[in-house]
Write a structure and sequence with these properties.
Layout (H helix, E strand, L loop, with lengths): L7 E4 L2 E4 L3 E7 L4 E8 L4 E8 H10 L4 E5 L4 H10 L3 E5 L1 H4 L9 H12 L12 H32 L9 H12 L7 H33 L2 H6 L7 H10 L9 H8 L3 E3 L8 E4 L5 H21 L6 H8 L2 H22 L6 H4 L1
Parallel strand pairs: 3-6, 6-7
Antiparallel strand pairs: 1-2, 3-4, 4-5, 8-9
């Protein structure tokens, strides 16, 4: 007989005391979720398939335990809701779960693999993002998407008109040249081509308006953020980079030191070491690509300004530029910037130039 107060569910006609369950792995989907319950010793307590309507009531009735999921698109929203029920939520990068899938891949195997991965003491987890973080991330990536679509449309228009002898360079001035060619009375272009080209121009104008609106929203958000203002004190870190760090990076207390944050961004060499021999290659790129690419771009802008206006002799940057290519120096500088950002955010201090203080 079950003890008083124990919650009992039925699975394959067997009574299971869910109070013994310490961890539940969830394979998320749109409508049907597969859950895998495990005891403290790792043995299987239950395997269940739940509909979207059954999922939260099931967890609400379950005693508090660890709920593990892959860090996919919907995981952060579910993580916030499940956390309000008192459960401990752990999100695992999908690439870390793959190694625990036995043989065939299906929902049951995935849920079991998530449970097994979450029980490992050395497993790395993803922090559940707040609503504000996801909102800013949506603004940031929507703007980035519209910029890409605008560039694609401009390139397509340039390519089509080039077939009729209308050439324009890759710049805003080039687009103006294409518009002037279309507006010319004797441009020699068929009416169908002119009409289609004007549709491109209307689409480009619409995208430009959306990009401008999103940029204003991002600027408005940044005014109320002390983190963004602090990050912008560092040379090479502008509005977009600061907002990306605030939106995509976890709490810096998750990292023991700045090098760990740089490694999380993928700004460290890829290791192929064996037999006690260190073999380092290009940067791993195993990290948050939005922040990484913006830091490298910002580092390159610092290098461009230094080469144009002069860099102090004997400084680290001057020595690196004398010996290494600019792109390699930019990646190295981005790594240093990432470590400095970690220090700034953990110590709650603005940027201080170490060379100026020396």
């Amino acid at each position: 007989m079950p003890s008083v107060g124990a919650i009992v569910v039925t699975n394959n006609e067997e009574d299971i005391h869910v109070s013994e369950v310490t961890i539940i792995g969830v394979d998320l989907a749109k409508q049907v979720f597969q859950v895998h319950g495990a005891r403290a010793d790792g043995s299987v307590a239950f395997r269940k398939k739940l509909s979207r309507a059954q999922f939260m009531p099931f967890l609400a009735k379950h005693p508090q335990c660890t709920i593990a999921m892959e860090a996919c698109a919907t995981a952060h929203g579910w993580g916030r809701e499940i956390g309000q029920l008192g459960h401990e939520v752990k999100l695992i990068p999908p690439q870390y779960v793959k190694a625990y899938v036995k043989r065939q891949k299906n929902d049951k195997a995935d849920a079991e693999a998530i449970t097994e991965a979450a029980s490992r003491p050395t497993m790395r987890f993803v922090e559940v993002k707040t609503v504000e973080q996801q909102s800013r991330a949506m603004l940031f990536r929507s703007r980035k998407m519209f910029i890409g679509q605008r560039t694609q449309s401009i390139n397509a228009l340039r390519g089509h008109l080039a077939e009729y002898g209308v050439i324009g360079p890759k710049s805003k001035a080039g687009l103006k040249k294409l518009i002037a060619a279309l507006d010319a009375e004797n441009n020699g272009l068929p009416n169908l081509v002119c009409g289609t080209a004007r549709m491109y121009l209307e689409h480009i104008d619409t995208l430009s308006t959306k990009i401008s609106d999103l940029t204003k929203q991002l600027e408005s958000v940044s005014k109320s953020s002390g983190t963004v203002r602090r990050l912008k004190t560092m040379p090479g870190v502008g509005l977009q980079t600061a907002l990306a760090i605030e939106a995509f990076a976890p709490d810096m207390s998750c990292f023991k030191r700045g090098r760990d944050f740089a490694a999380w961004l993928g700004l460290v060499p890829l290791q192929r070491s064996t037999g006690g021999k260190d073999r380092l290659g290009k940067i791993s790129k195993m990290g948050q690509k939005d922040i990484r690419s913006l830091l490298i771009t910002g580092a390159m802008s610092v290098i461009t300004a230094a080469t144009r206006f002069g860099v102090r002799k004997g400084s680290w940057l001057a020595k690196m530029l004398d010996r290494k290519p600019k792109m390699l120096v930019a990646i190295t500088l981005a790594n240093r910037m990432a470590r400095a950002i970690w220090a700034m955010l953990t110590k709650q201090e603005n940027y201080r130039n170490p060379e100026a203080m020396a």
